[in-house]
Amino acid sequence: MWGGRFAGGPAAVMREINASIAVDKRLWREDLTASKAHAAMLGAQGIISADEAAAIARGLDRIAEEYAAGKLVEDSALEDIHMHVEHRLGELIGPAAGKLHTARSRNDQVATDFKLFVRNCADEAIAGIDALEDALLARAEEHAATVMPGFTHLQSGQPVTLGHHLMAYVAMLARDRSRFLDARARMNESPLGSAALAGTGFDIDRDATAKTLGFDRPTTNSLDAVSDRDFAVDYLHAAALCSVHLSRLAEEIIMWASQPFGFVKLPDAWSTGSSIMPNKRNPDAAELVRGHSARIVGDLVALLVLLKGLPLAYAKDLQDDKPPLFDAHDLLSLSLAAMAGMITDLEFVPTKMRAAAAAGHATATELADWLAANGVPFREAHHIAGRAVALAEATGKALDELNLADLQGIDPRIGENALPRLSVEAAVKARGSAGGTAPDRVAEAVAAARAARRSR
Ligand code: ARG
Question: Are 290 and 83 a contacting pair, CB within 8 Å?
Answer without folding.
Answer: no
